[in-house]
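REVIEWER CHECKLIST
Item 1: Sequence provided? yes
Item 2: Single chain? yes
Item 3: Sequence as submitted:
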Amino acid sequence: MSGNARASLSGLKILVIDDSKTIRRTAETLLSKEGCQVFTAIDGFDALSKIADHQPDLIFVDIMMPRLDGYETCSLIKHNKVFKETPVIMLSSKDGLFDRARGRIVGSEQYLTKPFTKDELLGAISNQIN
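Item 4: Structure as written out by the authors:
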């Protein structure tokens, strides 16, 4: 099974939006090893131009960010007719029911708690693209 899942990630364009350099670097390293093309953004404003430029296949977005938080960023993506079908996975250090519910309301497909493992990260992507 894992052989197939890995092969399918190759060539995917993934945007990771997080104000934590550590999280961005971790995700970028893990995903690059799987053959993904990874773009990163430090917040929602930074992300919006990168989404337009790179048209990612999937977006990870941290909830707690300065300027434009993850909920607002996800909402903007989902209200854009070009990108509304792009899967958005919320990242949060809190594993709260309220956060999950709010993520669903703004249109996110999934919720991942930080720190995440390699398997959780890759599993979340596989769920969305298969």
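Item 5: Key structural point noted by reviewer: Residues 21-33 form the longest helix (13 residues).
Item 6: Recommendation: ____
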